[in-house]
Amino acid sequence: MNTISRSTRLSMSLSSWMVRWCSPGEVRSICSCTRFRSLDADRYPKGLAEQAPLYGNEIKDNLADVPEPFNEAMPRFLTEFCFGDFYTRGGLALGERELLVLCALATIGDTSAQLGPRGRACIQVGNSEAAVVAALVHCSPYIGFPRADAATRAVKNL
To answer: How far is CA 52 from CA 5, 56, 58, 112, in A?
Structure first.
């Protein structure tokens, strides 16, 4: 009988994948390689440096009425994970990154509360309003016309 739980096997599988994905000099522990994310101590300040110019305190303010301790934890998780781990990576310009996130949110659907701020950020980092709308229209055959239309309506009055 196998005594290793399914979650342990998954964790071991992810660990071996991470070890293969990181270069040998970067492997100190699971998830500590800099190609995967910022070092834990740097995640929040690095994420906040990316997030604050675009969104200020908007994310934290929008989650202020969530019960404790989640009203503090959720904004921190978003800052550390989305901005600290992903926005600090190379490969994409900030304008491209914002446009991709906007299109991903449109794909998910029912994200109208996030589409407006993301659309504003797209324009703030250099995308034109026409480019933002063109990207959402381009998504329509892949995500469905209702979702593309809803996303376009959410960002049309920027």
So the answer is: 41, 4, 9, 21
- Where is 13: in which H helix or E strand? helix 6-21
Whether the Cβ atoms of residue 91 and residue 122 lie closer than 8 Å to each other: no
pLDDT digits (tens, 9 = 90+) for 56-100: 888 888 889 999 999 899 999 989 998 998 888 889 999 999 999
Residue 158: C-alpha distances to residues 12, 101, 116, 124, 132 (Å): 46, 17, 8, 10, 10
> What is the residue type of 110?
D
pTM of the model: 0.68
Per-position DSSP letters for 81-136, written without gaps between them:
IIIIIIITSSSS-HHHHHHHHHHHHHHH-S-HHHHHHHHHHHHHTT--HHHHHHHH
Residue 20 half-sphere exposure toward CB, CA atoms < 13 A:
6
